[in-house]
Amino acid sequence: MIETRGLAFSYPQAPVLSFPDLVVPHGGTLLLRGPSGSGKSTWLALVAGLLTPASGEVVVAGQTVHTLAGAARDRWRARCLGFLPQKLFLSEALSVADNLALVFFAAGLPVDRGAIGRALSALDLSSLAERKPSQLSGGQAQRVALARALLLQPKVLLVDEPTASLDDEACAAALALLQRGAAEVGATLVISTHDARVVQALPAAQTLRLAREGVA
Ligand code: ADP
Ligand code: MG
């Protein structure tokens, strides 16, 4: 479950972005829509506790995010939240499998190689486990990042513009994987997009529409 109330944020020397109040039920799907610059990535970062709101609050699965400080917030994010950012942030120094192992370090948990193997296998990535990220296609790299996001069975899966650079077939495949992955771990799914194909593919999803200036 995600609930926001009176949520607003402003970058230094920039106008205030204010966001409409919202409740997404547990296991629901939200499409975060709006043109470039309307605040979609900022909204996701607020929900993930990567940014702290100027006012208002975000409650994720019963936890008021910004009341957690520093390391506790990082640990909470690592354990409860899956984040698939636009830029994937896979470490080139590490194999695919070890990129997934980092999740356990971030969460303060012992590395579970069995879980890593199962997460890779679920997304048909087992044969790529020892590759470096630069040895993957764009679609494979996105699947690795999805496997990483789902590894600890998050309560919420946040996905930022997953289809922007995909052709129609890859777009449909990516959306199917996101829905299946979220459903398998029982996560609430949030997808930010300005891609009409995503809206068409998920006609039943709840929608939050942001305006260009981010004004509610
Ligand atoms: P979207 O994801 O919908 O394209 P963003 O959340 O990235 O929108 O950006 C919302 C607004 O905040 C835009 O006007 C953008 O230029 C501005 N913005 C985003 N990140 C920063 C930043 N780090 N510093 C200053 N302004 C930013
Ligand atoms: Mg964005």
UniProtKB/TrEMBL annotation:
Residues 2-215 form the ABC transporter domain. It comes from the Bacteria. GO terms for molecular function: ATP binding. Keywords: ATP-binding, Cell membrane, Membrane, Nucleotide-binding. This is ABC transporter ATP-binding protein.
